[in-house]
Specification:
single chain; 219 residues; alpha/beta; seven-stranded mixed beta sheet; 8 helices; 7 strands; globular; Methyltransferase type 11 domain-containing protein; SAM-dependent_MTases_sf; S-adenosylmethionine-dependent methyltransferase activity
Length: 219
């Protein structure tokens, strides 16, 4: 996973900058952080720490990830961003992050995580719990093919590689046949802005994760 996350793709980087472009306009619920124009962000499934570059200066970053083997890669990446006050990884799943206090964070971030979680509805319940009133959930996920008239073959390959367990085995339990938009819309957020689209991915193998979902949901 570290090897694949190191690959740079200028088009994908620009797309992710767009996903997080409104972070700087968010306001913290914490008076002290508000004075400093800083935010408290919780990232679920932080992995190796590939999203540091998109967070505003002064961000207080809380991170959870169920895989303890990411810790050394995450620690190496966090050294490159002294402007971000990042905490040690809490080794747990998003569904079981009860140690994160309710109404305690301004923003929750999830990128390429919902493909591998055990229970999408439970993790969304947790996200709503930890967000402060008015807090926002930023998400970017790959999903199952949504235009089956034009790309039916891709959908069939996604289903086959997921059902046989081949893709989940190689990519840390990643499933190719999920679409979490309906669950997000029904989770209880006051507002959901979301868009299905195709990520600008050129690599032949990763055409399977080109169908994507991005958006912001507000508590």
């Amino acid at each position: 996973m570290d090897y694949f996350s190191r690959g740079s793709n200028a088009k994908v980087e620009e797309m992710k900058k767009d996903v997080f472009s409104t972070l700087s306009s968010c306001t913290s619920h914490d008076p002290e952080l508000r004075k400093k124009k800083a935010l408290k962000i919780l990232e679920i499934g932080v992995g190796t720490g590939v999203n540091f570059a998109y967070y505003p200066d002064g961000t207080r970053l809380v991170v959870v990830d169920p895989n303890p083997h990411f810790r050394s890669y995450y620690n190496e990446n966090r050294k490159k961003f002294p402007n971000i006050h990042s905490e040690e990884i809490i080794v747990t799943t998003g569904e079981e992050m009860d140690m994160v206090q309710s109404n305690s964070v301004d923003v929750v971030v999830s990128t390429l995580v919902f493909c591998s979680v055990e229970n999408q509805k439970k993790i969304l319940e947790q996200i709503l719990r930890v967000l402060a009133p008015g807090g926002k959930f930023y998400f970017y996920e790959h999903i199952s093919e949504f235009d089956t008239e034009r790309h039916g073959t891709r959908r069939r390959i996604q289903e086959f590689l997921t059902a046989t367990g081949i893709w989940p085995f190689i990519f840390d339990n990643c499933m190719l046949n999920r679409d979490m938009l309906a669950d997000i819309q029904q989770a209880g957020f006051s507002k959901v802005q979301a868009q299905r689209f195709y990520s600008p991915i050129d690599h032949f193998v990763f055409q399977l994760v080109k169908p994507s979902l991005k958006g912001v949901a507000e508590k």
